[in-house]
Amino acid sequence: MLEDWIFHAFLPVLSYASLVVAALTLHAHPPSSLFVIAAAALLLLFIGIHNAWDTVTFITVEQSRERAESGVGN
Fold it and tell me: Does the pLDDT of residue 74 top 70, yes or no?
């Protein structure tokens, strides 16, 4: 449950907030801002991969459980 809150709420908000801060400071500090933008993009990529993996795993486990309960495939 905590993992869901971290990957579906906290980390995306953190990533988008860092993008806003980097955009606001881009003119004053271009190199640092670009590194923050790259890090935020990577974080969003990893969040997406994790959430997709989590969804596929959940669906697979639930389908296996439903088949075992209904006796299908025995």
Answer: no
